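We append the chain.
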Amino acid sequence: MKITATKFYSLLFVFVVFAQMYLTSFKANLFLQIIILGIYLFYEKLSFDRNFLKTIFPVFLLFLLPFIGMLFHEKETYNVIKDIFHFIKPLLGIGIGYLFFKKINDFKWFVQLIVFIGLASAVIHFIIIFFFSNTNTVAEIREFGKDNFLELFSLLFFVFYKKFHKESLFTNSITHYLIGSILVASNLLYLSRTMIIVAIICLLSVFGLSIITRKTIKLLLILAGAVALFYFYLFSIKLERESFLYKVKIAPSELFKTHIDRNNHADLWDHWRGYEAKRAIALMNQNPSSYVFGCGHGSLVNLKFYAPLSDNPSGKGLKYISGLHNGYSYVFYKTGIIGIFLYLFFCLELYKKIYYSKQFVIVFISAIGLVFLFTTITITGIYNSKDTIVFILGGLLFFERKQLLTNKI
């Protein structure tokens, strides 16, 4: 049986995405992606469109910038290599998505493949919840799910493909409703605050409400008022610390509160992102140059105590950490104010594409720009070690190029 380019690169793409979702080792994932990219280079010629290179150039500069910060600070080789890998990761993911779908060159199959991967992930999610976990509480269900943006984008692609292309992804109605039901149920069972907001961002983009107009400003003000009322209600009732609504309640202070008593464990863990950011800024104050270029690859944040963040053989936990949950603090610490501007420029360049076109590809590229602006606050955005959105973005950027050339898709 002859293996076509579509089958070959589809299988490789599925493999790399599933590894990203379920293989816990960041290093193993990175090496797998490098090997898979090497397989591509063995058979194919490496070429990128100028528009694509222009789009990802800020991310490439973000990779280079920390080398300047290294000139002002002495680092251990191991930590330098670790950070280099973290800053390479989004470039690899976007590149793999772009190159593989450039060879496949079938937009409908791209959308179907994302849906199929999401469907398989949803089935795995159900198996874990119902057969391998004790799911008596919301906290236990969330523990065995976490976020899964691949599934969320699978659902969004599945639902809205017909809106833009006037045809269903799957002609069989039973197959259509079965896939839709599984994806909806699985997405709901993640009970993820971040996924809910990402879904809202994508829906706003799909319906053209992410474009700034008088109408959308009024809508955002109404939405802000509704959120304020909701939080007023949450602060007026008593909630258990492990409940979903409690997690929603503390979300704003979890990110930005910096006056934290680290001897009060409940206060510390509820506001861990804020504590990490506080320690990073305190260390930057010791070296004013770091505000411009960052502390560079290999820089570590001193937590001032041993936190139980990993299975340290000594049993003490970690006192020095390389990564931060708040991506803006992370980018600022590693690359300085220049890096923050580059990162914002990259995300906003993706977002503003919706002002030029309202087609499927452009709408979701724009949505991803807004999604990264938000998820960078909570889970490090493009530098999240488990992020799968970059693979989808890479594919979308290829089909954007094709759309510009053919005025289709």
Summary: The chain has a mean pLDDT of 87.
